[in-house]
Amino acid sequence: MKSGFVTLIGRPNVGKSTLMNRLIGTKIAITSHKAQTTRNRIETVYTDERGQIVFLDTPGIHRARTRLGEYMVGTARSTLSEVDLILWITEPGDPFGEKEEQIASYLGGLKTPRMLVINKSDTAGEETIAACRDRFYGKVDFQSFRAVSALTGAGCEELMEDIYSCLPEGPLYYEEDAITDQTLRELAGELIREQALRILSQEVPHGIAVEVESFEEGEDMTRIQAALVCEKESHKGIVIGKGGATLKKIGTGARLEIEKLLECKTDLRLFVKVRKDWRNDSRQLKNFGYRK
Ligand SMILES: Nc1nc2c(ncn2[C@@H]2O[C@H](COP(=O)(O)OP(=O)(O)OP(=O)(O)O)[C@@H](O)[C@H]2O)c(=O)[nH]1
Ligand SMILES: [Mg+2]
């Protein structure tokens, strides 16, 4: 039986989280069209007759401008030395630019097998994909390459085969039916943040953290109370919206997603608070689960 740890690394927004969800067949990591959606390392587990794969979804590699950003990049980077296989996820049109040089420098001293995965194959023709592969192959040694679409599933079965063929023989690291290391409470908090990312615009959602203050699972209803924490007083009004409309929209969207996850009716109470410049405050970062 094969088993091992596999990290998904790459610049923000290339579809690492969407791809991981697709590969395990369940939505665990939140996704959005905004860069820097993922902030923490998220472990998920896939088990079948071939063995077990533990995936690590990571924050996108970027040039950090806040302590939160430094934490995110550090978190992604640290997974590289813990795994049996590295999947470097990219998009067909991606140049080999500054962020790519940054990732290549992290790989420098490591002997870990690595695979180039060009995601979003649904958005480009074969020539564009081949040109992308050549650009990356010219800069970094990869064991193999695969074009996939996390959106349509194209190439994903083949990618799973590639992954198994790279992994060593090994034990089950998790129970056979395990899916993730995240608690339901953590997942619920992320689903709230996902709605904030999708509904709010510009820099507001990047400055939002979610604090789940209570999470009570009852017989036929789960009751959750959570705060959307913003970094500026001026953002608070934007998050609430006219007559509370924006907050209501975030709440309704999040409740529906949480009900799907928990398979249980949910009473979600959201409120908004301000913690000035929390993204640069190490004590607050720890509070919100972004700890070293
Ligand atoms: N067309 C297309 N869009 C995709 C595909 N995979 C992901 N996306 C979209 O790309 C955007 C980013 O997806 P994410 O999964 O959040 O990207 P990420 O790499 O995890 O981003 P960060 O967490 O910010 O680093 C979302 O709008 C996805 O719907 C794909 O295969 N095809
Ligand atoms: Mg992500």
Write down the CATH class of the largest domain.
Alpha Beta
- Low-confidence segments, given as residue ranges, are none
Helix content bin: 25-40%
CATH superfamily of the largest domain: P-loop containing nucleotide triphosphate hydrolases
Largest sheet: 6 strands, mixed
The third-level CATH topology of the largest domain is: Rossmann fold
Globular, elongated, flat, extended or rod-shaped: what is the shape? Answer: globular
The residue-averaged pLDDT reads: 97
Order of helices and strands: EHEEHEHEHEHHEEHHEH
Radius of gyration, in angstroms, nearest whole number: 19 Å
**What's the total helix number?**
9
First-residue to last-residue Cα separation: 34 Å
Number of strands: 9
Bound ions, cofactors and other small molecules, one mention each: guanosine-5'-triphosphate, magnesium ion
What does this entry look like structurally?
With about 290 residues, this protein is an alpha/beta fold. The chain has two domains: about 1-165, Rossmann fold (3-Layer(aba) Sandwich); about 185-285, GMP Synthetase, Chain A, domain 3 (2-Layer Sandwich), CATH 3.30.300. It has helices at about 15-25, 65-80, 100-105, 125-135, 155-165, 185-200, 235-240, 245-260, 280-285; strands at about 1-10, 40-50, 50-55, 85-90, 115-120, 145, 210-215, 220-230, 265-275. The strands form two sheets. A six-stranded mixed sheet has the order 2-3-1-4-5-6, sandwiched between helices. A three-stranded mixed sheet has the order 7-8-9. The longest helix is centred in the C-terminal third of the chain and has 18 residues, at about 245-260. The two termini are about 35 Å apart. Guanosine-5'-triphosphate binds near residues 37 and 38.
